[in-house]
Amino acid sequence: MKTIKNVQIKALEKGIRLVTINETKTYNSLSSITLKSLLTIFKTLNKDDTTKVIILEGAGKGFSAGHNLKELKSFKKKNDYKKLFNLCSELMLEIVEGSKPVIAKVHGSAFAAGCQLVASCDLVLSTEDAMFATPGVNIGLFCSTPMVAVSRKVSKKRMMKMLLTGEAINAKYAKEIGLINDYYSKTKLEKETLSLARKIASKSNLTIRIGKKAFYKQSEMSLRKAYKYTSKVMTENMMAMDAKEGISAFLEKRKPKWKNK
Q: Which runs of E-coded beta strand occur in 26-161?
């Protein structure tokens, strides 16, 4: 296991990496130090050919309480806040635009920027008692950057209720509105998360990379532009060795041998 200032990284098994936010004294708050560490780790893993899937979790009692309020209060200049929020946004973009699928494994609370972090991940599994919220309005600081990620997962009306009331939602409701994929008992969460990671890790790295990039890019386009773009993507994908191998393996009723090319 390797530790980089409040964040641990561990190779669980071939192709699967576990990233753990370990700042339990502040409920894994996303301080400047923690954000920098996470950004460094995700940039490294996204460039690593041996990494196929990333699991992100929080140590201790819960996932993350969001920004460190004591740090925010200590800032004196407007530029200090600007740097922090830009850093946080850079991390979220690295997760979304990065080549590796990221699974958030959530227990306890994921609030404010912690909820933003969850929403930025490609897939989310949680414990059945996990809670999610964008509660900034309660302290006079609207969750403006967190809503960017969360509003892209849930409908406008449901998002606005979360933002305007600051109320937390449970895992059952979070699944219903599309914020998370599923929830399990505490004893089953680890097993289910690893099972999901293994399924993804068994696929072609190249195909996953192409697909993830195309998914997020087309979602920002008009219907006509999206079809034009994805037709081009599929054409290029078809020219890859792994596409040819996958089709041959299917027709020959055997397991494919990925070249990641």
A: 53-58, 102-106, 109-111, 123-127, 131-133
